[in-house]
Amino acid sequence: MKKEINVKIDHVGMFSNRFHPADVMFQLGFSGEGGCKKMPLDENGQPPRCMRFVFDNCYLEFAINRDPEKYGGAEHGINYFEFASTDIVVTRDNAVAQGFTTTDLVHATREADHGEKKGTAVFECVALKDDVIPNIEVESVCHKTRELFYDNHRYLHDNGIDRVEGIILCNDDEDRVEKMIEDLDKFDRGLGDWGEGTAIRKIIVYDRDTLFREYGICVPKDCRNTGGIIFEAPKGDLSLRTNQFGDSVRRTKDAVVVDLVEQQNVFFVIRNR
């Protein structure tokens, strides 16, 4: 089984209960928020709880999870999808009309340093309480300071990767996958669209046999939080970005795969466009 779902994801969260999951991103040549090339440490030698890595169409957030009971006891992996909304009230009202239960709307701010333009990011959020994607939270965000995310000359990654093309999930239950597709379509109706070039536009769901045949990935028995990130880069030698990962790296016909499922329940697929 291989099912592709059309989505509009603003950012993706990944977590670990045991170590900082962002370390691998620096090893792969990505720059973190503020343009840092390695993990920043505070005066006590401690890393930030979360690190963001910004791309042309989205960002990825890697965080230490301090609640080991959360996410059904999973230790690592993808823990949430934040879908892009152009009007959070419309998004919330549509979700309720479609039969979902939502949290209250949240208005929040944080300092953003993703590139040339810096400042206070203002955004509004809402989350679904329903289990739309097994063990992964479904939320939505509306950026009120759009220029800090979509109209910014962003920090470039030394490895040349500039976009996230899609997300890969694994689920052997075809009926459950069809229900996920149906629910995400209902949720999508209230999101709006910031336009071409914004957001991650697809989730691809595989059963474990198809995922192994296509990418050589062996997923754990409980694969609810197992996920892959499909990165896109301009033409170039992709092996230069992955040589230090040894046997965790394999080539397919059109991509390089960095398999970190055993270490942190995620894998990366890197393609040229």
- Count the E strands: 13
Range of strand content: 35-45%
* Structural class assignment: alpha/beta
The whole-number mean of residue pLDDT values reads 93
How far the N terminus sits from the C terminus, by CA atoms, comes to 25 Å
Encode the helix/strand succession as letters: EHEEEHEEEEHEHEEEHE
Which regions contain 5 or more consecutive residues with pLDDT less than 50?
none
Helix content: 10-25%
How would you characterize the overall build of this protein?
The mean pLDDT is 93. β11 and β12 form a beta hairpin. Strands 1, 2, 3, 4, 5, 6, 7, 8, 9, 10, 11, 12 and 13 form a 13-stranded mixed sheet that branches. Helices cover 15% and strands 36% of the residues. The protein is built from five helices and 13 strands. With 273 residues, the chain is α/β, with parallel strands linked by helices. The longest helix is centred in the middle third of the chain and has 15 residues.
What structural keywords apply?
single chain; 273 residues; alpha/beta; 13-stranded mixed sheet; 5 helices; 15% helix
Quick recap:
The protein has 273 residues and is of the alpha/beta class. The chain has helices at 23-27, 88-97, 174-188, 208-215, 261-264; strands spanning 2-16, 50-54, 59-64, 76-84, 106-113, 118-127, 137-143, 163-170, 200-206, 227-233, 249-251, 256-260, 266-272.
List the helices and strands and how they pair.
Elements: E1 2-16, H1 23-27, E2 50-54, E3 59-64, E4 76-84, H2 88-97, E5 106-113, E6 118-127, E7 137-143, E8 163-170, H3 174-188, E9 200-206, H4 208-215, E10 227-233, E11 249-251, E12 256-260, H5 261-264, E13 266-272
Parallel strand pairs: 1-3, 4-7, 8-9, 10-13
Antiparallel strand pairs: 1-4, 1-9, 2-3, 5-6, 6-7, 8-10, 11-12, 12-13
